[in-house]
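The passage that follows is intended for readers who have already worked through the single-chain material. We present the inputs for a multi-component assembly, then the predicted structure in tokenized form, and finally a short commentary. You are encouraged to pause after the input and sketch how you expect the pieces to fit together before reading on.
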Amino acid sequence: MTDLVGAERRTLAELTEAVRDFGRERDWRQFHDPKSLALALVGEVGELAELLQWVPADRAAEVFADGERHTRMAEELADVLVYLVTLADVVGVDLTAAAFAKLEAARSKFPVAAFQGVAPLKA
Amino acid sequence: MTDLVGAERRTLAELTEAVRDFGRERDWRQFHDPKSLALALVGEVGELAELLQWVPADRAAEVFADGERHTRMAEELADVLVYLVTLADVVGVDLTAAAFAKLEAARSKFPVAAFQGVAPLKA
Amino acid sequence: MTDLVGAERRTLAELTEAVRDFGRERDWRQFHDPKSLALALVGEVGELAELLQWVPADRAAEVFADGERHTRMAEELADVLVYLVTLADVVGVDLTAAAFAKLEAARSKFPVAAFQGVAPLKA
Amino acid sequence: MTDLVGAERRTLAELTEAVRDFGRERDWRQFHDPKSLALALVGEVGELAELLQWVPADRAAEVFADGERHTRMAEELADVLVYLVTLADVVGVDLTAAAFAKLEAARSKFPVAAFQGVAPLKA
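Having made your guess, compare it with the prediction:
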């Protein structure tokens, strides 16, 4: 059984291990090819989108800050993370290292002076 | 500058802090309402999907195990994580704790005996 | 009431008109800004992905060819189309004309001789 | 070659036929299993989301009403439709009939009197 105390101090490597055990115990690893996991991830992102869709944009942060909607939002974000971690595991990617590296690359790509208050446009 | 040594031992709380600094330095936090971040997340999930779309399902794990495609996959997974962490931060969700809690709930919902080798169907 | 006889001969312009009436009657047009509609579209794409996620890739066409799963697939595809049509309407895009134009552009971009049996890779 | 005159009066059945020809000429139908097509659809939805992500919600309809951004939006909407039509074709769904049927079902599910100005919440 998982010790939930201090969960916020755990790493994604620990979450990966827990997700792997969960799949192994149920013999579900056979279903976890990258394309199936990507579709499962999309399914969870879809549920996240449904939570947000009709909420006024400028009130959304506040609406999800507490109460039942906060709980639902936490669950949907968690579902996305679980499939993201599972997919990363299947293709052998260290997700935390990759994210810090990507952030470092973004520091070079978007220098503070040139992008101050300017959202980068996708062409 | 971020120390990439030992990145895999870092927590999502540390990544959240780094992402927050990155946004603050560029004054980009003003764009980060939940709906905009959800759409940005969808954009990155879309790039992940494009990487996978035409690869044969039974060879995908192998195709992305190393080389250039592994690097690209790591980058796309990282992009998804960065926006997921940013969105969780904006709505005040502890993503790691939420994921461990969701996994714990899934242990009850899908008992090992009943779901051995059986993928849960979405109704 | 909609006459379902001959629905397959109707155009997207007619569907757009029906969707517009549906929204007007319920005073839902106020919720239909492009970002909200894009998130609603993502929600429906997520449900489509959930239907497909654990089905073996090489059996999926057959699995959804008839029966209950065919009906569910038809409903999810329909939901995606309805939001796509609504979004196109809000930004004033003639979806059918745009699709034929895009297909025409693709004919030039992917000449038959050079792309025979070769899936175009996303870089 | 496709005649673009009067494209808006064409049906999705005609678009389906054109898309099918396009795939056949390039021998691309071999890649078009439902899961791959769903991922391709997600890729295009991602590009749509990227166009919208940082635009203020209350100005988005206006921003995409004309000019270069209107053209880009039309292209992304078209890409989504083309993959949606391809997927529907592969599983044998009449997309137009399914959409009119779904709209008819929604008329019963959301009676005008009960849902006047009230966005239906996803539970």
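Commentary: The radius of gyration of chain A is 18 Å. The longest helix of chain A spans residues 67-90. How closely did your sketch match?
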